[in-house]
Amino acid sequence: MYILALIHTFPFIVNDIWSHDMINQWDTSVVYWTGVVALLAQTWLTFGSMSPIRKMWYEAFKVMHFIAVVTFVVFFFFHCDHTLTSWDYFIATGVLYVVCVLYSQIRTFARHGFGQRANISLAANGLIQVSVPVAFDWVPGQHCFLRFRSMGLHGVTLHPFTICSLPHSPAKKVGGEGSSSSRTVDFYIRPSGGFTGRLAKHAAGGTSEPVLLYGPYGGVNMQRLLECHRLVVIAGGSGAGWTLPFVELQIRHVQRVLRAEENAEVAPSLRLVLATRDRATCKWYLGKIQELLGAYNTALAAVKSSVEIYFTGEGGKEELLESSSSPTQPSKGQFTSKLDEKDMEKVLPPEGSMSDSIDDLDALGVETHMGRPDLNNIVAKEGSREWSQNLGVFVCGPLEMQNDVRNAVADQQLDIIKGSVKDVYLHLEHFDWA
């Protein structure tokens, strides 16, 4: 559209310069200069939306994007001057857009209500935890858009976050199902600048805020997931929270097989790989794993699962496994470093919580490694096992990590003709807009 606008503009400029009518047109024709304003707004919308600019100055980009959109539409409208009934198309587009927005809002209010409140707090590693009671079901990997109504100008925009929990807590399950009161969507949000930075300050000490929830959307293909005999879940950094539903789903699946007195070999195996340079996230994550196992009264080995932690930050293994039980010294990490000392004190987990002390890692069944994981070797090793079994690979991490896994899975797909695997299913989850 921008290229067509330039093709439309240049002949007029050249023709008016040749005919010595440029200044007269600019001074007397509203249509002329409104086109220039629209073109300038469109130039920013085109080049300002490029990935490096958008990521470097996202908050400024977002504000200027809204301003440029409104400017472009208004001045483009006047520039067209109802030529060839052009305004009819503007009106038709406006009607369709408004109807879509109204439908989305009405559907959201009808499905989720208008009085939802989100409990916002800071996790022990500095991630923002947002919990919203809901009355719907969802699957791993799905995300929702949240609108925090009390966050000033941020309450006007929607913010997408991936759900990091499963419906129905084990304590409230009856016959495999649960009541709607046990459904709480949990989000673990990485604090940075702009909105999430303000939300982190808001969350220090815990608070409850009115919220509008849109979704859920997306998610993994559950049919493909359930067909897999082996699951490999890989995450990096703040993607740790994204893996928790897979761990809980694995526990439920294996226990369901055992209750049905079926062969335990029918249940899939789970290999979970987390790479992080944040020591606080390592401890927080191990605590969450321990909480899940404790809630279902089981162990990793009993549910055919293994957890591997790859610490890519500074310090040795001893520093990584240092006790986190001190009530006065919270772990300084990648996300807690963004908080001041006053907020740091509020990050401390309550006394006696599972996150305060982590059991011996060998007893828990967790492997720890220093350095980056060899993702190609991990995927290749899993894909080289019994050829008749399906392999599912699920990734949430930086683009570098996703590219490495994508290439490794592509290699495995090429090996299908050699009979090494039956099928490989790959699901990628992005940290932000790709």
TrEMBL record:
Residues 319-343 are annotated as: Disordered. PROSITE patterns: FAD_FR. One of its GO terms (biological process) is iron ion transport. The chain crosses the membrane at residues 29-48, 60-78, 84-103. Residues 109-223 form the FAD-binding FR-type domain. Keywords: Cell membrane, Electron transport, Ion transport, Membrane, Oxidoreductase, Transmembrane, Transmembrane helix, Transport. It is a multi-pass membrane protein. It is found in: Cell membrane. Residues 322-334 have a biased composition (Low complexity). GO terms for molecular function: ferric-chelate reductase (NADPH) activity. One of its GO terms (cellular component) is plasma membrane. It comes from the Eukaryota. Its main location: membrane. It catalyses: 2 a Fe(II)-siderophore + NADP(+) + H(+) = 2 a Fe(III)-siderophore + NADPH. InterPro entries: FAD-bd_8, FAD-bd_FR_type, Fe3_Rdtase_TM_dom, Fe_red_NAD-bd_6, Ferric/Cupric_Reductase, FNR_nucleotide-bd, Riboflavin_synthase-like_b-brl. Its EC number is 1.16.1.9. It is an enzyme of class 1 (oxidoreductase). Belongs to the ferric reductase (FRE) family. This is ferric-chelate reductase (NADPH). The lineage of its organism: Eukaryota, Fungi, Dikarya, Ascomycota, Pezizomycotina.
